[in-house]
Amino acid sequence: MYEESADRLVTAAADGEDQAVEAALRPKLLDEFIGQERVREQLSLVLQAARKRGSAPDHVLLSGPPGLGKTTLSMIIAAELGAPIRITSGPAIQHAGDLAAILSSLTEGEVLFLDEIHRMSRPAEEMLYMAMEDFRVDVIVGKGPGATAIPLELPPFTLVGATTRAGLLPPPLRDRFGFTGHMEFYAPVELQRVVHRSATLLDVEIDPAGAAEIAGRSRGTPRIANRLLRRVRDYAQVRHDGVVTAEIAGQALDVYEVDARGLDRLDRAVLDALLRLFGGGPVGLSTLAVAVGEEAETVEEVAEPFLVREGLLARTPRGRIATAAAWQHLGLTPPVQTPPVQTTRGSVPPQPELFPADGS
Ligand SMILES: Nc1ncnc2c1ncn2[C@@H]1O[C@H](COP(=O)(O)OP(=O)(O)OP(=O)(O)O)[C@@H](O)[C@H]1O
Ligand SMILES: [Mg+2]
């Protein structure tokens, strides 16, 4: 899959700076976690019931786009259970033996967080099935015909898996999770609370309208909201007195070319070409890509998903088309649509008039 370039201000993927500051901004308990009401309520029931029974809760799968709080929630699960957490990821587990080593060193009730679980190797995945279901693994000792499987009992533990691509998980793995939380994009009011909370933690003075301005440009994603807040803070401190108002936030994000709806330079270039050069489409992806001077892959995987999500662009079998909202967003007037001419053979598109209608 195409990896989004990390230098994009509105990418949902974490860059180095995000990783450095995210630990400080992560809510630690379920009550501090903003939004995701449904997942939060469901999870809180699962955790409370486990605590009441005094046993480890069912395995939990968290699925959803990057930057919505999966890692944060996994840490909250451990904190709420008062249990230690072990953190690893699918790509880090190359061989079944790597997983066996981790599993066999778990203590009772420990939370094992397996990030990007869809990227685990096949043999490791099969070992995980047994570990999740029976708390047992077969450790293979030796090689070739002399190899023997030694069964190893595991203490009860809770696996928390996270994935941005739930569809890629093999069904046997998906079925072994007792609870799946689907994370959704955040509403602007929720993001406004995220921005406000982070500003307090970063010691940034912000008014509600300033927080709302940043939230509106954050593409429903807390990680982006936190990143935009840091850029706005810089601007406010360098050019002004450090206080973030709606006006300051708007000016700062204009400098960084993130518009009122969270579109960046690339998104706008794609939309602009589609509207101005191709009259709103339909136009093929490769043509559109050439027009903006980008690879087709970049247009398709970096710019389009958000444009589609926002209802600004649609992918059709005949090519990309712009919606009415796209014309409006760029402040352009769509060409007047002449209704198709009705004939006995069905409708045909209006033809340019080559000859005067009176036949002279
Ligand atoms: N509900 C929330 N309330 C407050 N802050 C949040 C919330 N969700 C996420 N965040 C913030 O957003 C940042 C990114 O969250 P997190 O790392 O948990 O995302 P993720 O879903 O694990 O992303 P990825 O798929 O890239 O691993 C965190 O630093 C955290 O501060
Ligand atoms: Mg994560």
Give structural attributes.
alpha/beta, Rossmann fold, Helicase, Ruva Protein, domain 3, Arc Repressor Mutant, subunit A, 3 domains, five-stranded parallel sheet, two-stranded antiparallel sheet, 14 helices, 44% helix, disordered C terminus, binds adenosine-5'-triphosphate, binds magnesium ion, helicase, DNA damage, nucleotide-binding, DNA recombination, DNA repair
The sequence of SSEs as H and E is HHEHEHEHEEEHEHHHHHHHEEHEE
Architecture per CATH nomenclature, i.e. the level-2 architecture of the largest domain: 3-Layer(aba) Sandwich
Helix count equals 14
**Count of separate structural domains:** 3
What is the end-to-end distance? 61 Å
Sheet of most strands:
5 strands, parallel
CATH domain class name of the largest domain? Alpha Beta
How does the overall form come out from the CA principal axes? globular
Q: What is the typical, i.e. mean, pLDDT?
A: 91
Helix content: 40-55%
Subcellular location: Cytoplasm
InterPro entries: AAA+_ATPase (IPR003593), AAA_lid_4 (IPR041445), DNA_helicase_Holl-junc_RuvB (IPR004605), P-loop_NTPase (IPR027417), RuvB-like_N (IPR008824), RuvB_wg_C (IPR008823), WH-like_DNA-bd_sf (IPR036388), WH_DNA-bd_sf (IPR036390)
Binding site for DNA: 315, 320
Protein name: Holliday junction branch migration complex subunit RuvB
